[in-house]
Write a structure and sequence with these properties.
- By secondary structure, this protein is an alpha/beta fold.
- An eight-stranded mixed beta sheet has the order 3-2-1-4-5-6-7-8.
- The chain contains eleven helices and eight strands.
- The termini are far apart.
Length: 312
C-alpha cells in the first residue's frame, strides 16, 4: 500500500473520527476545514475523542466488555501493551494538522476522504476547488451517507481514482468501512482503499455495485425516518418511541439516541434533499421542520452536548 499522507475534508462527527483513527494507526493526517471558525469547532470534537480512546483502552484492562475492535487487534491484550496504546493516543491526536489552505491540505495527499455536509452543491464546489491542488497519484473517497459516487465523479478530475468509503459512527468500536466504486473506478484504486481501511483497523465491506445508502444506511435510514415520522406526526414523544424500540427488541439504543450520535444536521440534510420534502403537507416536510427546530436551538446531537437528549 502506497498511502501514508491522508487528508480529511470536514471536521464534523465522522470527519473528526476518521482523522483520529487514521492518526492513531500511524498515518500522517491533515484536516481541511472551510474557515478558522470551523477549525475551532472541530477541536473540541477531537478532544472528546482523545478522551474516549484513552478511557476505553484503560477500561479494557479490567472489563472485557469494553473491548473495541478498532483500538486493539484482540480482546486479550496484556496490560503493558494497553499502556503503550494509551501512550500513543496523545501523540496521534497532537500530530493532526488543521488548515484552511488548499495547497497545505491537498498538495501532498495520497488519499483524500471527503466528509463534508450531505449537500451535493457543496460537494461540487469542494471538489472543483480542491482537485487542482492534488497530485496525480491522489485517490479521492467520499464518505457520503446516501449520495452515489457516480453522482459526484463529474466534479473531479480523476474518475479512475474516485470512489466511496463510508464509515459507521463510533468507528473505534463499530469498525466497518463500506467500499463502493463507480463505473470508472480502477481496480487498483479500489484495492488500495480496501487496504487502507484494513490498515486503520476497519473491517472492509466490499460492495459489488452502487447502492444508494450503501449497506448500513440502506437499512438504517428508513428505520430512523420511521421514528422521525412518528415524532413529526405527534404519534408519541421521543422517550416513548425509543422505549418501544428498546423494550420490544432488546436493542441498547432507540432511534433518537442513534440520531444524536449521527448528528441532526446530517439527518436534516438527508430528508431535506428528498423529493417528498418539497411538498409542505408531507410527512417528510414535517420531519424537516422538526429537525430544524432542534438545530436552530443548537441541539445538533451528542457533540453539541444536546440533541433529542442532554449529555454531560
Amino acid at each position: 500500500m502506497d498511502i501514508q499522507n491522508v487528508t480529511i475534508a470536514g471536521g464534523g462527527v465522522l470527519g473528526s473520527q476518521i482523522a483520529l483513527q487514521s492518526a492513531y494507526k500511524g498515518f500522517n493526517v491533515t484536516m481541511w476545514l472551510r474557515s478558522e471558525g470551523s477549525i475551532e469547532r472541530a477541536k473540541p470534537k477531537l478532544e472528546r475523542l482523545r478522551g474516549i480512546y484513552k478511557q476505553t483502552l484503560e477500561a479494557m484492562k479490567t472489563d472485557p466488555s469494553a473491548y473495541c475492535r478498532g483500538l486493539a487487534d484482540s480482546p486479550d491484550v496484556a496490560a503493558d501493551q494497553l499502556d503503550k496504546l494509551i501512550a500513543s493516543v496523545d501523540p496521534a491526536a497532537d500530530s493532526i494538522k488543521m488548515t484552511c489552505d488548499y495547497e497545505e491540505a491537498f498538495g501532498n495527499a495520497d488519499l483524500v476522504i471527503e466528509a463534508i455536509a450531505e449537500v451535493i452543491d457543496e460537494k461540487d464546489a469542494f471538489y472543483k476547488a480542491a482537485c487542482p491542488f492534488m497530485p496525480e497519484r491522489t485517490i479521492i473517497c467520499t464518505n457520503s451517507s446516501t449520495l452515489l459516487p457516480s453522482n459526484m465523479v463529474g466534479f473531479t478530475d480523476r474518475p479512475d481514482k474516485f470512489l466511496a468509503l463510508h464509515f459507521a459512527n463510533n468507528i473505534w468500536k463499530n469498525n466497518t468501512a463500506e467500499v463502493m466504486g463507480q463505473a470508472q473506478t480502477s481496480q487498483a484504486s479500489y484495492d488500495e482503499v480496501v487496504a487502507f481501511a484494513k490498515a486503520i483497523g476497519m473491517i472492509a465491506l466490499e460492495l459489488k455495485k452502487e447502492q444508494p445508502g450503501y449497506l448500513l444506511n440502506s437499512m438504517l435510514v428508513p428505520f430512523l425516518n420511521s421514528a422521525e415520522a412518528l415524532l413529526a406526526n405527534d404519534v408519541a414523544d421521543v422517550e416513548t418511541i425509543d422505549k418501544a424500540w428498546i423494550l420490544g427488541t432488546g436493542a441498547p439504543l432507540g432511534p433518537f439516541r442513534i440520531l444524536d450520535i449521527v448528528g441532526l444536521n446530517t439527518a436534516y440534510n438527508i430528508v431535506a434533499a428528498s423529493p417528498a420534502a418539497q411538498d409542505p403537507t408531507s410527512t417528510a416536510a414535517k420531519i424537516v421542520a422538526t429537525l430544524k427546530s432542534y438545530i436552530d436551538q443548537g441541539k445538533t446531537g451528542i457533540n453539541a452536548g444536546e440533541g433529542f437528549y442532554k449529555y454531560n
